[in-house]
Amino acid sequence: MSDQTTTVAELIGLMRQFTEERDWGQFHHPKDLGLALAIEVGELLEHFRYRTNEEILHYLESPTHLKELSHEIADCVWLLFRLADVCGFDMSVALRDKLQLAAAKYPVEKVRGRPDKYTAYQKSDKPTADPESTTQ
């Protein structure tokens, strides 16, 4: 099983089977899955806390650390896919939709090489009101 040969549907099927075999569906409500995701993201970030980018790159040269990190990321992906499944939407459709929205918000010609939020470069179609000319 690899990223090149495994579909999202296959992964969701494996997660459903795992959940059903353990009768854990009763615990998989959106709130609980969201909380579990937040906890797992915290565990993921522990690998980076108090390290510079250079130290992180060195840290990840260790096969043991890389494996640990991959497991934390897998926990997060698992919970994201499970949450999407429980909420009843298709993750691939949602991601494709989000990419289209992001492409409109962040056009290449305006943002290439810039880390700014879209509001930093978008022009407002509304004229700026003169605060002194407004009446209350």
Characterization of this structure:
There is one protein chain. The longest helix has 25 residues, at 63-87. The protein has a domain at 30-107: Helix Hairpins. It is mainly α and 136 residues long. The protein has six helices and no strands. It has helices spanning 8-21, 30-45, 53-59, 63-87, 91-105, 108-111. Helix content is 60%, strand content 0%. The model is unreliable at 124-128 (pLDDT under 50). Helix 1 crosses helix 4 (63-87) and helix 2 runs antiparallel to helix 4.
Q: Mean pLDDT, rounded to whole units?
A: 90
Secondary-structure-based class equals mainly alpha
What is the CATH top level name of the domain at 30-107? Mainly Alpha
Level of helix content?
Answer: 55-70%
Radius of gyration computed on alpha carbons: 21 Å
Beginning-to-end CA distance, first to last residue? 66 Å
Strand content: under 5%
Characteristics:
Helix Hairpins, mainly alpha, single chain
Short overview:
With 136 residues, the chain is an all-alpha fold. The chain has helices spanning 8-21, 30-45, 53-59, 63-87, 91-105, 108-111.
What's the structural blueprint in terms of helices and strands?
Blueprint: H1 8-21, H2 30-45, H3 53-59, H4 63-87, H5 91-105, H6 108-111
Helix pairs in contact: 1-4, 2-4
